[in-house]
Write a structure and sequence with these properties.
The protein is mainly α. The protein has one domain. Helices cover 76% and strands 0% of the residues. The chain contains 3 helices and no strands. Helix 1 runs parallel beside helix 3 and helix 2 packs antiparallel against helix 3. The termini are far apart.
């Protein structure tokens, strides 16, 4: 079960990504010029990886008695939420690609 803070953090991260996506120009670059879809995707993958590493570090810390179980459960829930969001986005991108392939030329 995800904690309310975990869900709030996930929604805030998705909101920031949505704000970045709405600022994209015709060429895929932001108006202030720097980010494109590839760099946004790279940043998201790095964030999901960081959450996973945090979860692993918390699990190792509890194994040696240096962390609370609550911290581990919170870190694992954040990791699970991040991976589920990433898989959901991946599925939507694949579905969009398949729709584009079905379009007549």
């Amino acid at each position: 079960m995800a904690l309310p803070a975990v869900a709030a953090n996930a929604y805030a991260a998705l909101s920031r990504l949505g704000d970045q996506a709405t600022n994209l120009g015709r060429d895929g670059n932001l108006a202030e010029g720097g980010l494109n879809f590839g760099s946004i995707l790279k940043d998201v993958m790095a964030a999901v990886t960081a959450v996973g590493r945090k979860s692993d570090a918390q699990a190792q810390a509890v194994a040696v008695g240096k962390a609370n179980m609550i911290d581990v459960v919170t870190a694992v829930a954040e990791s699970e939420t991040a991976v589920q969001a990433l898989v959901s986005v991946r599925d939507r991108v694949i579905a969009a690609y398949e729709d584009i392939l079905k379009m007549p030329i």
